[in-house]
């Protein structure tokens, strides 16, 4: 489990770094991350926030937010643990900018809004990767949102 968590942490950090810095003038990276437990969030969020804060320091908050549109959803049902973690991260840039929330994401709405913005921008080039972990119900929601 530790190895899987480490790999996931490395992948998220690398993807944010690669996509953001490699294509700054071309794209906005829309990243939505759902973390099921506060335990996992405690391990991943500091690294993600550190990367985000370095972008803010380098580019300024407005431009960093324009280039990297990240949302982190923490869905742990343990309210006491969630409140404790919320207090721990209150000084994180991502938390202050309301990019870390303690609710379930509305996946269909996220995909629909992304597609609408993409159509509105009329880019000459676009690449979209929709990756998720979930069962048939999640797959159905995303397939329906994508096709509308």
Structure description:
The protein is 61% helix and 11% strand. The protein is globular. Strands 1-2-3 form a three-stranded parallel sheet. It is built from seven helices and three strands. By secondary structure, the chain is mainly alpha-helical. The mean pLDDT is 79.
Approximately what portion of the residues adopt beta-strand conformation? Answer: 5-15%
Q: What kind of assembly state do the chains in view correspond to?
A: single chain
Number of helices: 7
Number of strands: 3
Poorly predicted segments: none
Backbone CA Rg? 16 Å
The percent range for helix content is 55-70%
Structural class, by secondary structure, is mainly alpha
Average pLDDT, all residues: 79
Distance between the termini: 37 Å
Strand order of the largest sheet: 1-2-3
Major sheet characteristics: 3 strands, parallel
List keywords for this structure.
3 strands, 7 helices, mainly alpha, globular, three-stranded parallel beta sheet, 148 residues
Overview in brief:
The chain is mainly alpha-helical and 148 residues long. 61% of the residues lie in helices and 11% in strands.
């Amino acid at each position: 489990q530790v190895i899987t968590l480490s790999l996931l942490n490395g992948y998220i950090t690398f993807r944010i770094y690669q996509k953001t810095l490699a294509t700054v003038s071309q794209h906005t990276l829309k990243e939505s991350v759902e973390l099921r437990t506060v335990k996992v969030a405690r391990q991943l969020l500091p690294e993600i926030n550190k990367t985000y804060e370095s972008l803010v320091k380098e580019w300024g908050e407005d431009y960093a937010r324009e280039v990297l549109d990240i949302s982190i959803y923490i869905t742990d049902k343990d309210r006491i643990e969630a409140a404790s973690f919320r207090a721990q991260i209150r000084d994180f840039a991502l938390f202050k900018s309301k990019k870390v929330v303690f609710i379930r994401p509305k996946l269909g709405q996220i995909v629909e809004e992304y597609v609408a913005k993409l159509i509105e921008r009329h880019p000459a080039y676009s690449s979209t990767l929709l990756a998720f972990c979930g069962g048939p119900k999640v797959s159905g929601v995303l397939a329906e949102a994508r096709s509308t």
